[in-house]
User: Which sequence fits this backbone?
């Protein structure tokens, strides 16, 4: 299994990165984890949009789903799409809410996507999916991907969560958000600090922690240092970088 970071900026695009979007590849199968605003541009430099086999949206905040709109436009109007329907896994209400982003006379998105509600577990191509509800104001589901004994867990957006830590238990790689700086009076059940991401990795006994979703106004090096203070096997993801799982 291989993870490529298409976009990793938290809460919106930054000056050097699009918002959340990650490409997972295994045995020729290509799964997108989120498709946040600004991501469709760099995505085209990583993979032909017609070669995306499935999309998993953790939740429906703009920085995780907004670029579904240009993805749909490409499939409808580029003349390069084979016209096959792509499985899109997302929380309830996704079909209606995403159709608003892609408004073309009220046309539904079922010409491009086969909508599937977020399951507890499922199989997408060679990837086994397990999910867990995160601590976030909008319904959000972390996901664990397993193939041939290798496992990757992506938190989506979450505050500290025993459910997500349990989902990540023993995973080879934990791709965890760290949007909050370590300052007083943080809102609960919203995001992790760098230290909290490290604590989750330590509690879950994962192999490696990849720190992501750092907003443009937060110091990424400080987030990484905080994560490493409790979990040394941490690194900060970079847009365009590829990581083996």
Assistant:
């Amino acid at each position: 299994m291989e993870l490529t970071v298409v976009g990793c900026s938290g809460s919106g695009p930054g000056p050097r990165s699009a918002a959340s979007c990650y490409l997972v590849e295994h045995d020729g199968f290509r799964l997108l984890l989120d498709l946040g605003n600004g991501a469709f541009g760099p995505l085209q430099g990583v993979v032909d949009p017609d070669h995306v086999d499935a999309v998993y949206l953790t939740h429906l905040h703009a920085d995780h789903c907004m670029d579904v709109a240009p993805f749909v436009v490409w499939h409808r109007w580029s003349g390069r799409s084979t016209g096959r329907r792509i499985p899109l896994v997302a929380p309830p209400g996704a079909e209606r809410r995403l159709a608003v982003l892609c408004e073309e006379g009220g046309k539904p998105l079922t010409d491009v996507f086969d909508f599937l509600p977020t399951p507890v577990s499922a199989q997408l191509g060679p990837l086994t999916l397990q999910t867990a509800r995160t601590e976030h104001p909008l319904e959000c589901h972390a996901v664990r991907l397993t193939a041939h004994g290798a496992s990757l867990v992506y938190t989506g957006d979450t505050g500290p969560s025993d459910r997500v830590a349990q989902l990540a238990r023993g995973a080879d790689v934990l791709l965890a958000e760290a949007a909050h700086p370590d300052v007083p009076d943080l809102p609960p059940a919203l995001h992790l600090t760098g230290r909290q991401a490290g604590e989750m990795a330590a509690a879950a006994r994962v192999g490696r922690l990849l720190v992501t979703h750092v907003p443009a106004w937060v110091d990424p090096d400080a987030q990484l240092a905080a994560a490493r203070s409790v979990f040394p096997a941490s690194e900060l993801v970079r847009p365009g970088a590829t990581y083996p799982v």
Q: What stands out?
A: Residues 2-244 form a domain with the Metallo-beta-lactamase; Chain A fold (CATH 3.60.15.10). The helical segments are 40-44, 62-65, 68-77, 94-101, 162-167, 194-204, 220-230. DSSP finds seven helices and 14 strands in the chain. The first strand starts at residue 2 and ends at 7.
